[in-house]
Amino acid sequence: MERKLIITVGRQIGSGGRVIARMLAEEFGCQFYDREILNLAAKESGFSEKFFEQNDEQKGFLKTHFHIHLPLLADNDFYKNDFSQESLYQFQSDAIREVAGTTPRCVFVGRTADYVLRDNPDTVNVFITAPMTIRIANVRERRGCTEEEARKVIESGESERARYYNYYTAKTWGAAESYDLCIDAGILGPEGTKELIGEFIRKKIQQ
């Protein structure tokens, strides 16, 4: 019987972390979950997916924190309902736990999955970084923007992401002690980084 495996991937913006996470999912035969978790959480809660997207890990966390006003979806009609962001986070966390408990092998990108699944012995937690120059170049290529605009995207997005992670986990986003492995993807590139992480995972799950 194939051993259960859960990989969580935290990443700096522009580091290539999401691409590497998908490569790991393919190598280890895992289901891949990034934005898909928002859809699952929406289905479980009965709320529209767009409200989970609007309150995601790097989209105005501080602006909407503590209390938001969102419509409940039922029979194709909107019903007004006040709801806290903590409740949205709980729905998302429950969706992550449900997937981890029912899917033999899966990869989660971001959304504090490493913390949500902290007591799961089948989890390998990875954080992917890269030098700012490489991250700016990647964001410029993806968005077709200037170097200055790319830098602003990275700095603003990571500020929100860190605050979101730190608030819900009481840990520090990107700090080495929060993960099993932290790696600079700028050294080996996406493929080489995937191979190194893959080797680490194989050794860890053999323990």
Automatic annotation (TrEMBL):
Taxonomic lineage: Bacteria, Pseudomonadati, Bacteroidota, Bacteroidia, Bacteroidales
Organism: Prevotella denticola CRIS 18C-A
Descriptive protein name: Cytidylate kinase
Gene3D superfamilies named among the record's database cross-references: P-loop containing nucleotide triphosphate hydrolases
SUPFAM superfamilies: P-loop containing nucleoside triphosphate hydrolases (SSF52540)
